[in-house]
């Protein structure tokens, strides 16, 4: 499979402080679903910000996934909190992501309704954010990112603040959207069950300060996955021991 | 009318009756405290003489001009200082020096610079509302959620100018408008103060009346100012609620 993004030798730190991330190298295949897990504070959100171009790394590079394209963004971020603009309607919030692309007003509107359909909230286009539930707001957060047709979709613990039932529903939704849009996904989570349920590949980060990749393994389970199966439990168990090794090493929090 | 309405009406009635009683019972001469019953006649004299409309229109003119200029300048400076650290540093001592000087203290300079003129009145009103708007806007624009700024950057709205209209102004609108509303009241005080020095308007007419001991006329103009302020505030609140209709 073709590589979409090459992340090579990233070192990240703030001001003159010690490095948050010492070394991160990974190639992401087209249409792959990669999860990143690691203890809180290890630098997962910071890594996504660097990949998205919001923060410059001290060292290393992130390759551009395609030639500059006025109608797409190479990366799009889905935040942990929905971060909807309260003074804009739902439609307005999705359009916000499209406003810096070179699209006509008609094309923007078309794209916005396309993704609103995709997340099942087209009927809510003219509502205000406060009129939506937490789960619906996360769908809009996701729709706003999908609307820019990113080569790589970056998600930062997007379901962690939701109740278990809504979280499971949205995990299923995300898999459906992943297939429907053929996008490549990098998904940060601290929920091991979630990582094994969603991802083809799980990267475990550890070591503080100066985190690096501790484990990088594939999840070859067939889809749709059954949380009750032995294979599923086995993978979650493997992940848990990798993480408890980090903790036992005194490197985690 | 509900209980709240009755109580408010009863309070107002008690106030007016008490006011009427004091001069009528001879506790205080009517010249020092004109009874409310004498006011309609005084009001009518002012209207038929043409003074009331003339003074009110003049004052409204000063008020509108000064308020628009002072508010515009204060909001623009406040938001700009919040967004550009260099401007903030550049202005910090200038503002520390100028801000504590009350609007009234500028009257001598206003008159020296502009003469007894509309411009002098406008200038004093501008000073009267400038700082309130500056600080309200500065605080509101500083407090804009950094997560929303990051969101804007993530979707290509990079740089202060691209974030100003879609993020900074709406996010600070509520705080800015609170400053503007305080300014609405301050501006009326400044109008009267400026006109006491002889610039035509309500304040000048009050000064003339008081030098003739026509205290009932003074009260007529006090009430005029109160009503004008009340109306501006009602219109403003109506407008603000429309602007901020996206808030819960
Ligand atoms: N803007 C910043 N300035 C300084 N340090 C920061 C900043 N943002 C994050 N950090 C530090 O970087 C580390 C990693 O943070 P983060 O990426 O949020 O971790 P995670 O998402 O894995 O929980 C933390 O120690 C945090 O304190
Ligand atoms: Mg995080």
What does this structure look like?
- The complex is a heterodimer of chains A (253) and B (248).
- By secondary structure, chain A is α/β, with parallel strands linked by helices.
- Chain A has 2 domains: 29-56 and 152-253, P-loop containing nucleotide triphosphate hydrolases (Rossmann fold), CATH 3.40.50; 83-150, no CATH class.
- Chain A has helices at residues 44-51, 90-98, 105-118, 134-146, 164-181, 192-198, 230-248; strands spanning 3-13, 19-29, 33-37, 59-62, 75-78, 152-156, 184-188, 201-206, 211-218.
- Chain A has a 9-stranded mixed sheet with strand order 4-1-2-9-8-3-7-6-5, sandwiched between helices.
- In chain A, helix 5 (164-181) links the parallel strand 6 (152-156) and strand 7.
- The radius of gyration of chain A is 18 Å and the shape is globular.
- The model of chain A has no long low-confidence stretch (mean pLDDT 94).
- Chain B has one domain (41-247): Orthogonal Bundle (MetI-like fold).
- Chain B starts with a helix and ends in a 5-residue tail after the last helix.
- Chains A and B meet through loops of A and helix 7 and helix 8 of B.
- Bound molecules: adenosine-5'-diphosphate and magnesium ion.
- The site of adenosine-5'-diphosphate has 10 residues of chain A, from helix 1.
**Counted beta strands of chain B:** 0
Distance between the ends of chain A: 37 Å
How many discrete structural domains of chain B? 1
Largest sheet of chain B: none
Low-confidence stretches of chain A: none
Structural domains of chain A: how many = 2
By secondary-structure content and strand pairing, the structural class of chain B works out as mainly alpha
* Unreliable runs of chain B: none
């Amino acid at each position: 499979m073709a590589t979409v993004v090459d992340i090579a030798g990233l070192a990240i730190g703030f001001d003159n402080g010690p490095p948050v991330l010492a070394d991160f190298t990974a190639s992401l295949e087209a249409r792959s679903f990669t999860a990143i897990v690691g203890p809180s504070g290890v630098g997962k959100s910071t890594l996504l910000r660097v990949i998205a171009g919001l923060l410059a790394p001290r060292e290393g590079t992130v390759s551009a996934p395609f030639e500059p394209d006025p109608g797409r963004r190479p990366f799009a971020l889905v935040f942990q909190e929905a971060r909807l603009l309260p003074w804009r309607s739902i439609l307005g919030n999705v359009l916000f992501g499209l406003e810096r692309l070179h699209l006509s007003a008609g094309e923007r509107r078309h794209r916005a309704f396309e993704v609103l359909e995709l997340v099942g909230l087209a009927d809510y286009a003219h509502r205000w954010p406060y009129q939506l539930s937490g789960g619906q707001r996360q769908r809009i957060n996701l729709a706003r990112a999908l609307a820019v047709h990113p080569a790589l979709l970056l998600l930062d613990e997007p379901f962690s603040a939701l109740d278990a039932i809504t979280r499971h529903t949205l995990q299923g939704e995300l898999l459906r959207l992943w297939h429907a849009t053929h996008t490549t996904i990098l998904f940060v989570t601290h929920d091991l069950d979630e990582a094994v349920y969603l991802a083809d590949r799980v990267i475990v980060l550890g070591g503080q300060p100066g985190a690096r990749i501790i484990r990088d393994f594939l999840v070859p389970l067939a889809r749709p996955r059954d949380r009750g199966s032995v294979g599923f439990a086995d993978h979650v168990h493997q992940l848990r021991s990798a993480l408890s090794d980090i903790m036992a090493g005194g490197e985690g929090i | 009318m509900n209980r709240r309405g009755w109580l408010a009406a009863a309070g107002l009635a008690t106030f007016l009756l008490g006011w009427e009683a004091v001069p009528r019972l001879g506790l205080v001469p009517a010249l020092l405290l004109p009874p409310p019953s004498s006011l309609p006649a005084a009001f009518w004299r002012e209207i038929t003489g043409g003074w009331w409309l003339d003074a009110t229109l003049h004052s409204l003119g000063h008020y509108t001009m000064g308020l628009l200029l002072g508010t515009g300048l204060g909001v623009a400076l406040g938001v700009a200082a919040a967004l550009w650290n260099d401007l903030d540093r550049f202005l910090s001592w200038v503002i520390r020096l100028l801000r504590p000087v009350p609007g009234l203290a500028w009257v001598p300079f206003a008159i020296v610079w502009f003469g007894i003129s509309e411009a002098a009145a406008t200038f004093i009103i501008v000073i009267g509302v400038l700082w309130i708007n500056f600080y309200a806007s500065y605080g509101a624009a500083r407090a804009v959620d950094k997560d929303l700024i990051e969101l804007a950057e993530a979707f290509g709205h990079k740089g202060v100018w691209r974030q100003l209209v879609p993020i900074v102004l709406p996010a600070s609108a509520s705080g800015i408008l609170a400053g503007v509303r305080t300014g609405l009241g301050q501006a009326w005080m400044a109008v009267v103060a400026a006109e006491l020095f002889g610039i035509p308007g309500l304040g000048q007419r009050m000064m003339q009346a008081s030098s003739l001991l026509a205290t009932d006329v003074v009260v007529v103009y006090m009430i005029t100012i109160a009503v004008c302020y009340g109306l501006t505030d009602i219109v403003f609140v109506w407008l603000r609620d429309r602007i901020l209709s996206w808030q819960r």
